[in-house]
Amino acid sequence: MKLEARGVSVAYGGKTALDDVTFSLASGELVAIVGPNGSGKTTLLRALLGLVAADSGDAALDGRPVGAWSRRALAESIAALPQREEPAFPLTVHEAMLMGRWSRLGPIASVAESDELAIASALARCDMTGFEQRGIETLSGGEWQRVRLARALASMPRLLLLDEPTAALDIGHEMELFELLRELVADGLGVVVITHQLNLAARYADRMVLLDGGRVMAQGTPEEVLRADVVSKVFAWPVAVTSWKGGAPQIVPLRRNEQ
After folding, report:
1. CB 209 within 8 A of CB 34
2. Is the pLDDT of residue 56 over 80?
3. pLDDT for 205 beyond 90
4. How far is CA 105 from the centre of its chain?
5. Using CA atoms in the order 147, 83, 228, 201, what is the torsion angle rounded to 10 degrees?
6. Is 79 left (phi over 0), alpha (psi -120 to 50) or beta?
7. Other C-beta atoms lying within 10 Å of the C-beta of residue 199
8. DSSP codes of every residue in 162-196
9. What are 29-47's pLDDT values in tens digits?
């Protein structure tokens, strides 16, 4: 399965959010979208999901414009984790997880054993087994984030789009999440992750897309994207680039007197 942005441009109130962005995600790869605040990362994700109209270009799933797919058909193939979410009413974790099965259940179907198995498996992968009857209002920010990821996985998608999934996670769960993403990719899932964690993205992603001002400033392997001159310019701060085991580039922000 392949998801693409094909020359997508989006403007809000006359201000450019995306400018001729071309990008693709295929099953079995992990792509990290990075860039400074306000660079267009979330808008790109929303355009890929058909949640924002493009002024030019389009998004396509398996060559067919996303807008031509029904929302349910899209939900059967793509799961998304938005950056922010405020529940409208109290729910238990189990009830929240059932919402991740709606595309499989439909509006009136009864919950089947297969649904419960999918929920249990997803909670286990996100280290949330035993939380099923907890009210989501009692969860910490990190616990709620892991439940939201589990809910996305419970839909058994073929593509997974994540917007800042490590927000509110401690270092252990942050690392576990990236390890889980690599396991999912090895199983054939296609994953896009928006992240500010450049160094983790460099170690885990197959490809990176660097955005600034709605434009693609660099795209390719982590080694091709995370160059000191490019990163320093985009983030308006001097950096050095070193490498970790296996050659993954690692960004070191410099102090002013180290330039």
Report:
1. yes
2. yes
3. yes
4. 24
5. 20
6. beta
7. 17
8. EESTTTT--HHHHHHHHHHHHHHHHTT-EEEEE-S
9. 999 999 999 999 999 999 9
Question: What gap in Å lies between CA 193 and CA 257, rounded to an integer?
Answer: 34
pLDDT score, position 33: 98
Q: Give CA–CA dist 40/38, Å, rounded.
A: 6
pLDDT tens digits along 73-132: 888 899 999 988 777 788 999 999 998 887 766 666 678 888 899 999 999 988 899 999
CB-count exposure of residue 61 (10 Å: 0-12, 13-18, 19+): buried
Q: Give the mean pLDDT of 158-171.
A: 91
For the range 17-21, what are the long-range contacts, defined as Cβ-Cβ under 8 Å and sequence gap of 24 or more? 17/43, 17/214, 18/43, 18/44, 18/47, 18/54, 18/214, 19/213, 19/214, 19/215, 20/56, 20/57, 20/215, 21/47, 21/57, 21/211, 21/214, 21/215, 21/216
Alpha carbon distance 50, 58 (integer Å)? 9
**Which residues, 6 or more positions from 156, have their beta carbon under 8 angstroms from its beta carbon?**
104, 118
Protein fold of 2-87+157-258: Rossmann fold (3.40.50)
Q: What share of the chain is helix, strand, coil (3-state, %, to 5)?
A: 40, 30, 35
